[in-house]
Structures are given as C-alpha cells and as structure tokens.
Amino acid sequence: MVNRLQLTQAVLLCSLLLAAPGRAGGPAPTTPEAPAQVAAIEYGPQGARPVVIQVSTRRVQWTGDWRQDAAVAHLSWSPDGTFLLYRQADTLMRHTLGEQGSIKLAEGLAMPRTRPDYELRPDGQQVALRRAPSQVAFIPVGTAAGISQQVDMPSGCLPSSMQWQPDGKVLHVLCAQESSKTAPLLVKLDPAAGVVTFRPAPDVAELLGWSEQRGLLVSGKADAYGQRPGNVKEDGSYHPLRPAPALPENSEESPPIDFVQGYLPSIDGFVMARATEDPHDPVVLTLVTPGESPAKRWLKSFKRVGTISYGVPGPWVAFVDRKPADRADVGDIYIVRAGKEDARLVIRANAKRDTFYGGPEPRPHKAGTSAPKGAGSSKKP
Fold first, then answer.
1. What is the pLDDT of residue 346?
2. Domain extents for the chain?
3. Residue 347 to residue 304: CA distance in whole angstroms
4. Which of 36, 40, 65 is nearest to 51 (CA)?
5. What is the full DSSP assignment across 213-275?
6. What pairs with residue 13 in β-bridges?
7. Strand order of the sheet with strand 238-240?
8. Nearest Cα to 128, choosing from 115, 139, 116?
9. Sequence-distant (≥ 6) Cβ neighbours of residue 353 within 8 angstroms
10. Is 376 left (phi over 0), alpha (psi -120 to 50) or beta?
11. FRET label pair with 104: which of 277, 287, 304, 332, CA 20 to 30 Å apart?
12. For the chain, how far is it from start to end, CA to CA, in angstroms?
C-alpha cells in the first residue's frame, strides 16, 4: 500500500503544476469574447523578458529588456488592460501599453516564491506588496493621485498570500509565523488605518479569491488525504466547501489525493491536481464546485500541465503546456474557456532556438480587442 505521508510530500510538487491546454492546429482565431492579447514571460538564450502576444497573429511584442541576472515573474494586468505589472528580481515593474519600456514602482520586495507577493486593488489604482520581513506596503499605480503607505504586521507574522475585498477597502493577509509550532494568522488591513483585526487560522493554507455568496475563499491545510477548498467566516473560522473524501472499505489501495491549485471565478469552481509519486507522471486536473457534485476531469488531452492564470474575471484563462520542454512551467501557451476542452494555441515554443514561454495572463476582455502599440519591435515566431 502506498504510504500517504510519502504521497503528501510528493504532491507538493503538484502545487507547481497548475494547468493544461487543449489541442489546436492553426492560429487561434479571436472571437468577440476571447482575449485579444496574452502577456507572458519569454525565456531564451539571452535570459527572460515579459512580452505581449497578439492572439490572432501570434506576434510577440516585448515590454522589457532581456535579463540574465534577474528573475522575471508574476505578471498581472490592470482591470482595464492599460498596464501590466511584473516582478523583476526584488523590483516591481510597470509597463504601460503604447509606451516604450517599463518603469520601477518599488524595490525591496521579499524573496520570490511560487505565488505572487503583490496584489492589485480591484479598481487598479493601488497595489499591496509584501516587504521583508513583516511589512505590507500600499503604493499608488493607477491614474488617481495617492501616497505610499507602509503597515507593520503583528510580531512574527510573515505574509504569505493576500486578497482584496471586492470593494477594495480591506486587504486580507495570511501570515505564516516565525515558529512552525504557531498557527498562521489571518490579518485584515486597511491601507489608511493599519491592522484592523487578526485571528489564528490553523486550518488555512492559502487565500484563493472572493465569492459574493461565500466571502473569502481559501485552500485548507494539507493532510494525508490532500486538501479541500473552503471559506472563512467573519469570526475567522474555516469551513470546507466539499465533503471529506470517502475511504474505500477493505481496500489496500489509497484513495486519490488531490490538492487545491486555484479558483476560477467565472464558473465558481476550484482546480485540483492529483498527487503523483513521480514529477514526470501525467498531470491529472479536476474541477470541483461547492457541495457534493462529482469532480470533473479538465484538460484531459494535456499530460504536462504548467501554470494557469487563476483569478481572472472573464470566462477565458491561459495556461502552459510543458510538453515541448518537460521542465518546470515553460512550454507552449494556450487559452481555453474555464471548464471547457476547446483550448486554442496562442504561441508555440521553439526548442531549436531554446525559446519557451511561461506565466501567461490574458488581457482583460473589457480592455477591447485592439492590438497594443509601441513598446519595441514585434515578430512572428
């Protein structure tokens, strides 16, 4: 019988595998509802750089210089699609479509992690970012005037994930504690007033998003049977939104162990990844919704799934197919409607030129379908 603790450790590798794509042949046609552009990170012999890809033509437009000495990560569009935020080493950068290059917004970000350590306010006018070791800074990034503010977190609190309320008035921050024996804290911050409240959150692993019906959505703490999505009540208590997995009787086989990968607001669904003992095993993704409805397989045609653009408000998401590279989170990029199998190729990696793509983010549909102007040259791979 497979040891569940070994599976739990092995499954942590699954946390980096977030999505898969659907097969497509020719250029991806732009429909009225599909994103016209997708931002991504281009990796090549010269390093890495952020780019914007025109979906209908697959033309690539770079927004920043190649960097060999600094990691590029965590792309995020403004709600209106007019500018793009990304991380370059310990610096938060901003690229405005139609302008040349990018500008520095802030330096001194905490060490990079697999999840973004900044969160753009829903109106796109302010960004909250994690500063080492126990601070959160609020910086104006939109067209409205404002001043930068910095809030000290409770003693020993190390911010690990953040989510704004939909009205943009309060930021929820999950904090790991310096002592591994102490439960995480869930902190509510007001940019002007500082800490509002903080409570222990021993059963919460990550903040995932926001639901109008259920409030703050989270992934539960992992155990030998994986994770379950849940929500957090006003009193800070965690409530799973799915029943515990049923254990088969008189069976020497362990039940499937699934881990929460992210939340897709357009279908009110959570993406789960199946635990594997070997990182080269095929990636199995399922979609679950609150309640007891059966889990549904998703992106069945793709066996080497990379990053998915979680949290986007529209019906389309982008993801990486790692098959061309079979290494962490780079390869071809596809777009697909959340919960569907009709994935469309956006751009293909070129192994001969050692060029691969990762970290895709579809430009918000409300931004329109016109191609961005300026900001360097463009090419068709």
1. 98
2. 4-365
3. 16
4. 40
5. TTEEEEEEPPBTTB--EEEE-TTS-EEESSPPPPPPTT-SSPPP-EEEEEEETTTTEEEEEE-
6. none
7. 204-211, 215-220, 229-232, 238-240
8. 139
9. 44, 45
10. left
11. 332
12. 48
Asked if residues 146 and 124 have their Cβ atoms less than 8 Å apart, the reply is no
Question: Is the torsion defined by CA of 318, 323, 325, 329 positive or negative?
Answer: positive
Domain spanning 4-365: which superfamily? TolB, C-terminal domain (2.120.10.30)
Q: How far apart are CA 78 and CA 82, in angstroms?
A: 6
DSSP assignment, residue 25? -
DSSP secondary structure, 144-166, as one string: S----EEEEPSTTEEEEEEEE-T
Distance CA 323, CA 331 (A): 7
Report whether the peptide linkage leading into residue 133 is cis, meaning its omega lies within 30 degrees of zero. yes
Helix, strand or coil for residue 11?
A: helix
Per-residue pLDDT at 185? 92
Amino acid 264: pLDDT: 95
Farthest CA pair distance, the chain: 65
Q: What is the pLDDT of residue 280?
A: 76
Alpha helices in the chain (DSSP H): 4-11
* pLDDT < 50: residue spans in the chain: 1-26, 29-30, 32, 367-381
- Alpha-carbon dihedral of residues 334, 335, 336, 342, nearest 10 degrees? -50
In this structure, is the dihedral angle defined by the CA atoms of residues 16, 19, 21 and 27, taken in order, positive or negative? negative
The single residue listed with the structure tokens 């222990």 is: 200
CA separation for the pair 120, 79 (Å, rounded): 9
pTM of the model: 0.84
Q: From residue 53, how far is each of 3, 58, 81, 371 by CA, in Å?
A: 44, 6, 14, 9
- In this structure, are residues 13 and 279 in contact, taking their beta carbons and an 8 Å threshold? yes
